[in-house]
Amino acid sequence: MRREDKKITRHCEAKGRGNLWQTAHARKSLPRRCAPRNDPLLYVIIFFHLPPFLFVKTWAYYTQIQPLYLIRTVMAKILIAGCGDLGIQLGLTLVENGHEVFGLRRDGSKIPPAIKAISADLNQERLNLPENLDYVFYTASAGKYNDFAYYQAYVSGLKNLLKGLAGQKIKRLFFTSSTSVFSQSDGEWVTEESLAEEHNFSSKRLLEGEQLALKSGWPATVVRFGGIYGPGRTHIIEQVKTGKAHCMEDVYSNRIHSDDCVGVFCHLMQLDSPDSLYIGVDDQPTLSCEVYEWLAEQLSIGTIEHSEPTENSRLMRSNKRLSNAKIRATGYAFKYPSYQEGYASLI
Fold first, then answer.
1. β-bridge pairing 172-178 and 77-81
2. Residue 196 pLDDT exceeds 60
3. Spatial distance between the Cα atoms of 182 and 185, rounded to a whole number of angstroms
4. 103: which strand partners?
5. Residues 84 and 60 in one domain
């Protein structure tokens, strides 16, 4: 037997008797099964003879107790209601950040295992929800473009959720809305203070949902997102590739990458007292034709068909430049500040 092995064996048999300094040195080379795990004096000795980082690592090894900076603690208990594509992306990010996340949707089998799935329909009156939730994100969307679908998604579903949450001490409720509630059509700049009104059934139901959230009795924040694009949301790219793209002259468009939708939500959740309303768009409102032409150039596709907007099309389609100054003022930095960076990551 080697001298070092004999030393360890004698130490194990002695169970810590002998010179303290020799004991400490012996224990540092002990096999895990032999090392004593709850000897405070040992940690004191090692602390004064090892750099702090090595002390922490040694402590973690011998005690099997994770030091604070290594602990993956559950920071908050979060529910994502209407856990579709955006909700799943948000949920996975929150799980990676150490949170416990529940996702609610009709078919819970479509939710990744990292998120605790709840199979339920938001339009059923009695929802069995987790207790002691800290944050709730409402990310439901309408499956069809008609009044009934929008009512179910943004009004009825939220009402049922709020009933199911009764009695809980929610720190903040986040409601996903749309910038389509702004009807400005002259290319003007629009902020959170600009007029939002019911100009069609979709804006009516969205604004109803916003008011339900804001009057829920819990602190609430509404985020009005512009056109969301990203993985799985590449409709414009496909139109350009297939030669079906056409654009109207002098009409502004506003958009946000899905990664930044998630980033905005995570950022706001970390703020002590976020405001009740934010616009979620990137830094660069852009003429629609400019976006199509840029994509065509990147994809080596021919020219895009342009058309002059008719009076009827102007009435049907808004034309505005949305400002994200308020969300940027909170300290959020966009991953994709313009369409060029965002679409470049997808093509």
1. unpaired
2. yes
3. 9
4. 80, 117
5. no
